[in-house]
Amino acid sequence: MRLEDAIQMHGMIAIALDVLEQCEAFAPLIPEVRTNLDYAKPHAHTTKDVLAIDGRITVVNGKARAAGKPQFGASSHMARLILELAKSDPSIRAGVNFASNPALMKWLSAYCADRGWVFSVIDRSTEPEEIKETEGASMPWKVGQAIKAANGRVPKIFYETGAVGKEPVSVLVGRDPIEVAEQMCEIARRYNAGR
Amino acid sequence: MRLEDAIQMHGMIAIALDVLEQCEAFAPLIPEVRTNLDYAKPHAHTTKDVLAIDGRITVVNGKARAAGKPQFGASSHMARLILELAKSDPSIRAGVNFASNPALMKWLSAYCADRGWVFSVIDRSTEPEEIKETEGASMPWKVGQAIKAANGRVPKIFYETGAVGKEPVSVLVGRDPIEVAEQMCEIARRYNAGR
Amino acid sequence: MRLEDAIQMHGMIAIALDVLEQCEAFAPLIPEVRTNLDYAKPHAHTTKDVLAIDGRITVVNGKARAAGKPQFGASSHMARLILELAKSDPSIRAGVNFASNPALMKWLSAYCADRGWVFSVIDRSTEPEEIKETEGASMPWKVGQAIKAANGRVPKIFYETGAVGKEPVSVLVGRDPIEVAEQMCEIARRYNAGR
Amino acid sequence: MRLEDAIQMHGMIAIALDVLEQCEAFAPLIPEVRTNLDYAKPHAHTTKDVLAIDGRITVVNGKARAAGKPQFGASSHMARLILELAKSDPSIRAGVNFASNPALMKWLSAYCADRGWVFSVIDRSTEPEEIKETEGASMPWKVGQAIKAANGRVPKIFYETGAVGKEPVSVLVGRDPIEVAEQMCEIARRYNAGR
């Protein structure tokens, strides 16, 4: 990739990471599997084209903290999710995952309606066995479900229901990691204030 | 607590953590929810009596690395598990959790048989709804299941099957964290060598 | 400052820091006072306008490692040095400090001559008492000395001799931190190879 | 060494490090060369017998923070200083270095007098050239000076004056790192409160 693009991407993710680490309300929304913050190159094809936090973002001393540094290829699941979403909406290049529970999902649904954001869900319990068993088939199916459940629109926020062995998680996507981190922190602050 | 005990516990967990961080074969066995390494005071009653790694042990640059420092009260699930086991066998004061999958469980079952270690399982799918819904009832039930499935013996290693929203994980327990970390690393090395 | 500039600066310093941390030959050139890597905004006036590594770059496990994250205002001495040099050559916006000893200085003098780089020295023993005692007068004097000793040219590399209470250090400056980090690592590798 | 000793030493240094990291008044007393905290085995002979902080203790985000983990052999100057002092007083096994300036030294002199602690000084300007040039001769000379300047008594706190290329630093020694860290923090708090 061009050095200019690497500089721009590293700069964006450094600032975005700082937004999340400084956001006190965010730490309680970090799920058991921890949070990653991903940023895909334009025209990205593989997880190697996606910049993410090595070791993910965890909670240390009550605060969100990156375990390692941003690196290309440091994310797998979140990276593949963004690559798949970008096939339907190429403006999507960044995302962050966070906790999911019924109260938060209800609140988020109203929050998204308010802002005119598309909110959706992936019900993993409906995933066909043949999809689960075919290498690489699961992510296209999931993203297809999220778009289908939103009447053909690409969602801004969606959650995956838990499944056997899988923690339910929410995902917020956007154009770049600074936008995504600021929206994430705003959500965390408002949700926290409303409890 | 007495300063002598705090010194001894902090010294043990520092050396044990080093064993895990230096063990190259261990990193691939860290589960999505990450590993914790716990060490309970003698006669511990609450999670505040259990020393564990703040932010858990995660994988950075391909290696196991503690996200934060050992602190009393830094662990919840693993701490309560050890407190519950200690009611049946007070010599159990330390534990480490790691990944679970069918191949590893089959291998571990044989490994435990070889060494004369009790191996067991907690099948979360059989957990009654009233247990799940009663605050604090789940852990006694789980430990009861693990002992029951081992014909009344307290297991050295056991795993919890996955459930909806829950990753399957394995647990190894023992008298102190150095013993536990060394046994964990030995298992990781042998399992890795055999693949 | 404009967000675009902050992104570009954070991206540059992240990549430059990675160059130094990955450069095995560099760690032995980190001085007792440790290394900083600085990057000034265009038209910078104060140390708050200079991005640098919080806690400096130290040696951990034999490797160069940033103690904290890049932050504006994290550097004092190096930041003021770059601000002062920029008054004579506004293209200078970045710098890194490293060890100084007679063998290395002799080698560097020849290396600079080879590449057509201006090499200079600040002899702190000649600093007048009234300069030392006047708040803020020392840095202009030093930079003036470095330029004077190079016959009026702004140096690419220079060193400050030790003084009472002061470790001798070398400094390499340039347009941006990536250029500076790559030149620093190249010097470290060649110097190391030649010993 | 015996495992019991390693456990006890690692436990002591972990708790002592926590005391320094939590001590807000201490960070401003960390010198440019940074602080180390050292703990020698009983009957220690070489720096490999001394446990110290890899990468030293630096200031990150305004707070004292260990750059790496405690390791045997991680310290050189401070380790040799403690080994040398222990030849005169074998009860000395731990030490910490910190800043030195005229105001602090005056305050410390009174503080030590108050507590009945021996306070001393090593005037590096009087070090003979033949000592400086003989490998390994400098430390015995220094410790000899510190004891001589205290009328033959081994000091609790002393400072080295600055020399050409050398920052002046203070040192506090004691029986173990917890004692040393608590005394260090008490000094920092009182000195800070009195300004």
Task: Chart the SSEs and their pairings.
The structure is a homotetramer of 195-residue chains.
Chain A: H1 3-22, E1 37-40, E2 50-53, E3 57-60, E4 63-66, E5 70-72, H2 77-88, E6 94-99, H3 102-115, E7 119-122, H4 129-133, H5 138-149, E8 157-160, E9 169-174, H6 177-193
Parallel strand pairs in A: 7-8
Antiparallel strand pairs in A: 1-2, 1-6, 2-5, 3-4, 6-9, 8-9
Helix pairs in contact in A: 1-6
Structural overview:
The structure is a homotetramer. Chain A has six helices and nine strands. Chain A is α+β, with helices and mostly antiparallel strands. In chain A, strand 3 and strand 4 form a beta hairpin. In chain A, helix 1 (about 5-20) packs parallel to helix 6 (about 175-195). The radius of gyration of chain A is 16 Å and the shape is globular. Chains in contact: A-B, A-C, B-D, C-D. Chains A and B meet through strand 3 of A and strand 3 of B.
DSSP summary: helix tally of chain A: 6
Radius of gyration of chain A from CA coordinates: 16 Å
- Reading the helices and strands of chain A in chain order gives HEEEEEHEHEHHEEH
Seen as an oligomer or otherwise, the chain set is homotetramer
Instruction: Choose one word for the global shape of chain A.
Output: globular
* Biggest interface, CB < 8 A: A-B, 20 and 20 residues
Total count of strands of chain A:
9
The low-confidence runs of chain A, each spanning 5 or more residues with pLDDT under 50, are none
**Percentage beta strand of chain A:** 15-25%
| Percent helix of chain A | 40-55%
For the sheet with most strands of chain A, the description reads: 7 strands, mixed
The computed structural class of chain A is alpha+beta
User: Looking across the biggest beta sheet of chain A, what order are the strands in?
Assistant: 5-2-1-6-9-8-7
